[in-house]
Queue: 3 jobs
Job 1
Amino acid sequence: MENRCFWVTGSELYKKYHDDEWGVPVYDDETLFEFLILETFQAGLSWITILNKRENFRKAFDNFDYKKIAKYPESKYESLLQDAGIIRNKLKIRSAITNAQFFMEIQKEFGSFSKFIWSYVNNQPIINKFRSRDEVPATSKISDIISKDLKKRGFKFVGSTVMYAFMQAVGMVNDHTINCFKYIEE
């Protein structure tokens, strides 16, 4: 039996996410946007809640197509509020729409969201060497900076904790503990 990070429960969905996605560097804007949306909806909730609803989010938000989401009319917003398959939080749904608009503004300014976000870590994943749950932080200096920058640009639900979880999810930081089979030594 393979050793996994402390946060992985017995859920097969959690195991698959941990083994196949978490901490794997993501450079395409479409997937980065998907994780940005999922992480903002996760704020205050458990990640397994989001994973269990991920396919519902995918359907409700047009496969996380930020170009479509940025143009959602009020009627689409209202229908999302009625969708029991997702997290029906008015502010989070509204933020998905506005964050899509600001996401595209960053693309215009930097050429891609990927170039923008990965520049915070010099385009290289940070490989941490944590031994236990107690060592893994909820935020970092870099997530603080990213959070402030995104908020200044108009993004919502992008606090430092959300941004650190985003960084972990998209592989900007690799926080697999050293006893985990996914841990990679430099």
Job 2
Amino acid sequence: MEYTLTEQIRSYQPMNEQEERDKELILHCLETEKNIFTRQNRLAHMTASAWIVNPERTKVLMAYHNIYHSWSWLGGHADGETDLLKVALKEAREESGIHHVKPVSEQIYSLEVLTVDGHVKRGEYVSSHLHLNVTYLLQAEETDVLHIKEDENSNVGWFSLEDAVAASTEPWFQEHIYRKLNEKLVNIK
């Protein structure tokens, strides 16, 4: 029996207060907002992110994001797709060039509500909004050839777990997201 994303989020066990509160907000938006899986909803969009590790789980794959001027995880908008694992896998391939990426688990790895400041994308202003984000733990080989996606990033590379946190220039992500994702690796088999 396949569970809907809402059911998966409802059954997700938060690791900390941030995930607990964000889970509540994501569920509220899924139940009350229209077009939440598309960018037509100008307040919030469903997104999927990938924390991509090597098989030994000693390194993480990150991209240098052109909009945020920071090394970050990979991911993107649902754009109408309700299978967010599928979105995370697609974005991982598109943003890094890796072909041999697979889920460590099909279960949700983490939940976040992320603020996105207003910015210009493809010559058009995008107002500040929220990303209602579901993160999946993916695995890839370090030997896979990497490619940038010029309209989104300018570099892609493997980092040790600690260096991945340090490479980010976004303090909130360092403290509340990337460290948390690394801490959770301890409990993954």
Job 3
Amino acid sequence: MPSNQCPLGALPARFRRTRVLIVGCGDVGQRVAARLPAGVRVLALTSSAERVAALRSQGLVPLRGNLDDAASLRRLAGLADRVLHLAPPPGAGGRDARTRALGQALLRRTRPRALVYGSTSGVYGDCGGDWVAETRRPAPRTERALRRLDAEAAVRFLGRAGGVRASVLRIPGIYAPDRAGGTPRERLAKGTPVLRAEDDVYTNHIHADDLARACIAALWRGQAQRVVNASDDTALKMGDYFDLAADLYGMARPPRVAAEEARGQLSLMVLSFMSESRRLLNQRLKRELRLALHHPTAETGLR
């Protein structure tokens, strides 16, 4: 797909002057910007002066602002027709003041037509390996997931209070060969263990390019106050995923250990992922956002 081709096809003439604001314009945000048609003006919020030139070189309009400084966000009011919010929450606590500050800024003047927030599938907590639809009640088990759920609530409030078509993408593990840390190679090279089959958990994935296309689809097609699981079709346990990657890369499969043994070898972050098991259903992604995945399984994406 050419870099300037939108997965929604050619946009109608009335959309060609659309202004899209990307908040949190990292890897996925830049993939989104590259896939929007040339007629769409893309604004990117950044708190880093060092990033301004790089964003401008990609054809984006950089805007200086810091989500931790509400006053610096005032200039965002009325600037964009559609907003994509991919910025992470603060690093501690159970609330996301950053998303609330962004929401207040967007409510000051003419509100955007659409707001899409990139959340995490971690808000579901441990589901015991069940298939999980968006109607399942969230049960976050970590502060990180609690912050994301708080951000979702702020986004929904903005939708109700401001008449904005607000939607949420719940995102699992993101991978891509050209994404920093986007493949299992580094972990396989270190020989980091995975759980033995009887202790293993289901994990979920989305290729970064497909996630970018899902973000664009949600900006134009997302339903108001709607949650969508942005996941591919893969139904693999974590150990099987790393075995698959090892076989594709011609590397040694990781060692398998019992859950008790893993607690003494792995970081708390890795252990938190190993303590939750779920399989995401993605019918809304396909039916409502009408997204045809380019990488429907981890095997095709890793190849």
